[in-house]
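does this look right to u?? zinc ion version
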Amino acid sequence: MSNDTDDLDNLIALMAKLPGLGPRSARRAVLHMIKKRGLVLLPLAEAMHRVGTTARECLNCGNIGTKDICDICESPKRATGEICVVEDVADLWAMERSQVFKGRYHVLGGTLSALDAIGPDELRIPKLLDRIKVEDISEVILALGATIDGQTTAHYIADQLPGVKVTSLAQGVPVGGELDYLDDGTITAALNARKAL
Amino acid sequence: MSNDTDDLDNLIALMAKLPGLGPRSARRAVLHMIKKRGLVLLPLAEAMHRVGTTARECLNCGNIGTKDICDICESPKRATGEICVVEDVADLWAMERSQVFKGRYHVLGGTLSALDAIGPDELRIPKLLDRIKVEDISEVILALGATIDGQTTAHYIADQLPGVKVTSLAQGVPVGGELDYLDDGTITAALNARKAL
Ligand SMILES: [Zn+2]
Ligand SMILES: [Zn+2]
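got this back:
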């Protein structure tokens, strides 16, 4: 490519770093954007700028919204006494799409991992323990992946909460599976069949 | 998702429309961007805005650059007398990456298609015929896909250029390709174009 394409090369390189995209799909995506400059490229630039300036993590649960406290944490309807603990915001979105859970969330921001030296303080675990003291919580539902790190994290959290009802999603979540890959029906079935740890 | 996520939903919806992305990969990509706001999201917004305001099609060949005439058309080194005709800018980039072609290009912007009612005037074919009159062209290389529409387009262009040397890329087994993965048409073409060793 020639030197009047520096901006283009830069855009392709940035796109190619997104998860799920590689150089080839980034080039295709960028050509598509340029062909649809008014319908795709400029609206995307504007949407990214907007999200980049407004998006923030909820100080209570770690969900992404535009305010210090997200809509789910603010809504009295969601004060069911249940907190669903997830690894990631993508998992929270997957739960919300299944529409079966009516309570609030807590986004850990990952799982405990000896290998990656991720301990409780690297995650939103201290804040979870605070919430359980302050909010009127009847049940903590651990909706963590059926991976070794996910289950280690689940047991660690359960150990920190003596006297609190702690449940986890039923097996039905495939071994090694991540929540975000599951269809709504599987999530619904796994939630309905949840068991006490 | 809740109503303080309108900007986020909008960004995900726009990303999901890009070729190669769907709703799930768009959500993953957007979460990744937000986590890497300074390294990914804001630079992407800026790069898109820049490309959106500077990118334009070369008036001569249809390549994408930032000037009315692209670097390849402007470079005297590329005046080899050869024009390589491609369907799309992505194909031009693929040729440039192979570094084997030293001449100039002509980007048709698609192929003739009876089904989609795309005739010569919907493509950059009239401009190609003009260039062959004006530029000092010794050979037109048709690097079009081995599809029915691609080959129809190749034959149409060859018919418009009596007295001009018109060639096309050889069809055959891709380098590193295993026969077992190829469709019958490719194997047939490769067999018909077989050469003595
Ligand atoms: Zn929240
Ligand atoms: Zn050009």
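The CA atoms of residues 83 and 137 of chain A lie 7 Å apart. idk if thats expected tbh
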